[in-house]
Amino acid sequence: MWLCCSLRVTALLFAALPSGFSSHESTGTEFVTAFLENMAYYHPSPPTHRLLISALYNRTQVNVTIKEMDFDTSRVLWVGQTEEVALPRWVELGRSNVSSRTVHVSSSSPVAVLSVNAKGSSIETSVVQPVQNLGTEYFVASLATPTASSYRIVIINTQSANTVKVSHSSSAPPVAVTLGPYQNAQFQIEPPPTATRVTADHPVAVLFGHPCIDRTECTCGLVFEQLSPTGSWGTLFIVPPSSSWNNTNQLLLLTASESTNLEGVLPSMPFSGSQSSLNSQEVLQLNLAPAGSPFHIKASRPVSLMLLNPGLTSFTPEETFSSCHLLHALSGFSNYALLVVRTAHTDGVGLGEELLPASVTWTQVDGTEYSQALVPLGSEPMQRVVWHKDSKIGVYNFGENTNGTKSYGHPALSLKVEPDGSKCKVGVFELVQEEKSWSDALQHCWAASSQLVSISSPEIQQRVAQALGEARNSSMAWMGLRRSLLSGAWRWLSRDPVGFSRWAGGEPGDPLQNQCAAMLLEPERNFIWTAKSCCQTLPFICFQSGSEVPFP
Ligand SMILES: *[C@@H]1O[C@H](CO)[C@@H](O)[C@H](O)[C@H]1NC(C)=O
Ligand SMILES: *[C@@H]1O[C@H](CO)[C@@H](O)[C@H](O)[C@H]1NC(C)=O
Ligand SMILES: *[C@@H]1O[C@H](CO)[C@@H](O)[C@H](O)[C@H]1NC(C)=O
Ligand SMILES: *[C@@H]1O[C@H](CO)[C@@H](O)[C@H](O)[C@H]1NC(C)=O
Ligand SMILES: *[C@@H]1O[C@H](CO)[C@@H](O)[C@H](O)[C@H]1NC(C)=O
Ligand SMILES: *[C@@H]1O[C@H](CO)[C@@H](O)[C@H](O)[C@H]1NC(C)=O
C-alpha cells in the first residue's frame, strides 16, 4: 500500500508566502492575541471571551495556550468546522501595563481566527492576523472625542524577547519596553492630531480600542481592532455610504506615516480643496454624512483608514482585496456582508456554493470602477464563504441589534487572495517519497485522483516551496512538466501556458537526454528546477484540488 511510504504534506497552500512575498490572507498556523478590558474589569456581567477558529483542512490540530496561568487546550478540527474556544475570564486585561495574558494559537494546518470579546451587551470582534502578517512598525490614531484619553493600545509579542518603542510625537523621546516571549504591554494613547508610533525589533501584534465608547440609549460598549502594520497599508479605499451600514455617528480615521497627497473624494469632504495633503504621522478625522453617497480616497503614499461604528473596522485598501473570504454571523445580531466589487464583475460573486441572486442591489461608487452591495446574513450563528470566480473583492462583516445598543464590525477573513474559480475550495500538495519514473509517478497521482503538480506561476512555486520546506527528505522530485515528443517544447500537464520557469543555471540542457522536469528540494537554492531523463526514478509531487466548498 503506497500510503505506507508517502509523507502527506498537508498543503500550506494558503499559508503565508515567505518574506519578499506579501500575503494578505488571514490564514496561518501561528497567532497571538489578547483581550482588552471590556467596559470595566470590575463590571458585574460575566465576560465571554472566545476565539472562533475555522479549519480549512481535515485533521487540523489546534492548540490554544495562555502562558501566565498554564491554560492549555487542544482540539482536532475538520474542513469547514468552526470551533468556539471559550477562554477563562481572567484572560481579560485590566489596566495592567505588562502582562503574560497573551493567547497563543498554533495549528498543524492553516486556520482562520476571529476574536470575540463580550460582556453584557458590550461585544466586539476582530480578525486575529497570523504571525506572518505582523510587522515591526505601526501608527495608531486616536479620536478626538470627550473620552479620547481612554483609548488604549496593546502590543503583543511573539516567541522571542523583543524591545518595543512607543512615541506620541516626533519631539518627545519614545518610551521603550522590553517584552519576554508572549508578553504584552498596554498603553494609553494621546489625543489627536498626531498618531502614536509603535516600533519593535521583531514583529508584534497591535490591538487598538476603547473599553466603553458611547452608543445609543445611554449605553456604552467596547470597540477594538487589530491594526495593520505600515507595510500592509494601501492607497485606494472605497468607502460605502453610511446608509449601507445602517448606522449613524460614523467616523473615519485616516492616518499617514509620511507626507501624503489625497484626491478623489467628495466635495463635501473637508480635505478636498484646501486640505489635500497630510503630514507625516498626521491623523484626519471625518464624520461620514448620514445620507452620503459612497466615495473613495486615493492617496499618493500608503495610508490606513478605519471606521468607528459599527464597532471599530479597518478598511481594506484595493491593493489587498482577495478572491475568497470567510464571513461569520453572530447570535443576537442582524448580520451583514458589505461587498465592494468591480462594476463589470458584479455578476460573478458567490455565497457558499451558489452565485448571489440577481436581486442584490449594486450601487456604483462615483469616480471608481467599483460598486457596493449589502447582503443580509440573518441572525443565526454560522460561517459562510463569499468569493469571486475571477476578481478580487473587498468584504466587510458587521452586525447590529435592533435598537442600536450593540454592534460589531471587521473586514471579512481573507482565505485566498488570487481568484482561481474554485469557490474557495482548498487543494492539497503531496510529496510522495517513493521513487518512480516520470510516467509511473503520473499514473500514481491519477490513481489517487490528483495530478503531478504544474508550477505555472511564481505564486504556485512559492506555495509548493513552502509546503515542502519542512518535509523534504530527498534531493529532487518530479513535477508535471515534460517536453513534447514532437516539437521539443515544454508543456505543463495542467495545459497552463509555459511562461514562468525556475531552471537552474545551464538547464534544461540537452533536449534529447533531459525530457522531464524535477524540482530540487533545496530551500537554499530556492527550489530551482532541473531536467532529467524521464526513466530515472525520483519521488514526486501530486496536487489534489479541493472537492468540497468549505463553509457552504
Ligand atoms: C474530511 O473528512 C470528512 C469526514 O471524514 C470526509 O467526509 C471528507 O471527505 C474529508 N475531506 C477531505 C478534503 O479530505
Ligand atoms: C507599569 O506601571 C507601574 C506603576 O504605575 C510603573 O511604575 C511602571 O514603570 C510601568 N511599567 C511600564 C513598562 O510602563
Ligand atoms: C499541540 O500540543 C501537543 C501537546 O503539547 C503537541 O504535541 C503538538 O505538537 C501541538 N500541536 C501544535 C500544532 O502546536
Ligand atoms: C436599518 O434600520 C431599519 C430600521 O431603523 C431597518 O428596518 C432596516 O432593516 C435596517 N437595515 C440594515 C441594513 O440594517
Ligand atoms: C435593546 O434590545 C435588546 C434586545 O435586542 C434588549 O435586551 C435591550 O434591553 C434593549 N435596550 C434598550 C435600551 O431598549
Ligand atoms: C526519509 O528517507 C529515509 C530513507 O530514504 C527513510 O528511511 C525515512 O523514513 C524518510 N523519512 C520520512 C520522513 O519520510
UniProtKB/TrEMBL annotation:
<feature type="domain" description="C-type lectin">
    <location>
        <begin position="429"/>
        <end position="543"/>
    </location>
</feature>
<protein>
    <recommendedName>
        <fullName>C-type lectin domain-containing protein</fullName>
    </recommendedName>
</protein>
<dbReference type="Pfam" id="PF00059">
    <property type="entry name" value="Lectin_C"/>
</dbReference>
<dbReference type="InterPro" id="IPR001304">
    <property type="entry name" value="C-type_lectin-like"/>
</dbReference>
<dbReference type="InterPro" id="IPR035234">
    <property type="entry name" value="IgGFc-bd_N"/>
</dbReference>
<keyword id="KW-0732">Signal</keyword>
<dbReference type="InterPro" id="IPR016187">
    <property type="entry name" value="CTDL_fold"/>
</dbReference>
<dbReference type="Pfam" id="PF17517">
    <property type="entry name" value="IgGFc_binding"/>
</dbReference>
<feature type="signal peptide">
    <location>
        <begin position="1"/>
        <end position="23"/>
    </location>
</feature>
<dbReference type="InterPro" id="IPR016186">
    <property type="entry name" value="C-type_lectin-like/link_sf"/>
</dbReference>
